[in-house]
Amino acid sequence: MGLLTKNMVYQRLGHGGMSMNKQVQSIPAEIARSEPAPTLAERLRIARGRQSQAAFAASLGVHKNSIGSYESGKTKPDSEFLARVCGVCGVSPDWLLLGEGPYRREESPASVELTESGPAADKAEAGPAVMFVPVTGLAHCGIEGWYNPSPLALSVSVPPHYSRQGDMLAVIAVGNSMIPDGIREGYVVMCDCGREPARDDAVFVEKLNGSASIKRYVDRDEEWLYLQGWLKPNERGEQLPYSDQLRLDSIKRMAPVVFVQRRG
């Protein structure tokens, strides 16, 4: 499953944003009550408010059946539709897409803090002041398990005690191939491009053709990189492992995951 990236919505809204209908006057009480954080389908229902699905659909230029399908989670809306929701309802793309930040749109990007995870936690040393790193989203590219990276209007902070060894990269995970490693869709993972991965590390891999993914590092030799992921859950809810073998000369960069932002 691909992630609709927030920059797509901002692009459709325009640099300064489009004029917003002020029919939504306050933050709905459902937001404060939601625990865990509402899903995209639930956020669409919150944005619709007291309007009927038919009236909401008419204001957005779609069929009411589409609204029902989006709000039930059966299908995922595209970025153009979400941009319309942001414009008509005055909601923030950060909140609508990711459940982050204020309900209302703000000009400044949202930011989240990360909790350290994995072997890097034992190696962390005192470091400089907190640094913010832009977040990249992954959109489906038609190749199973691989996605097109795209920047988002979102940033994450690197804890000041972490002694980074290279450029930092933050990515929002998509799909379910890394659930057994504790990385679920919507989690923000931060990677250190200067750190060498160890066996069984979760790693971000970007190929020269522009596609990228998060997988488990197994090994490499002079010619090949060996990775592992997991298939979609079967009828019994089991996820079977699969192997991915890539030529090293097809890899643009690879970086181990050192922090994970878990989302409700």
Could you characterize the architecture of this molecule?
By secondary structure, this protein is an alpha+beta fold. Helices cover about 25% and strands about 30% of the residues. The protein has helices spanning about 5-15, 30-35, 40-50, 55-60, 65-70, 80-90, 95-100, 120-125, and strands at about 110-115, 115, 130-140, 145-160, 170, 190, 200-205, 210-220, 225-230, 240-245, 250-260. The longest helix has 11 residues, at about 80-90. The radius of gyration is 20 Å and the shape is globular. Mean pLDDT is about 75; it is low at about 1-35 and about 105-130.
Provide tags for this entry:
single chain, 264 residues, alpha+beta, 434 Repressor (Amino-terminal Domain), Umud Fragment, subunit A, 2 domains, 8 helices, 30% strand
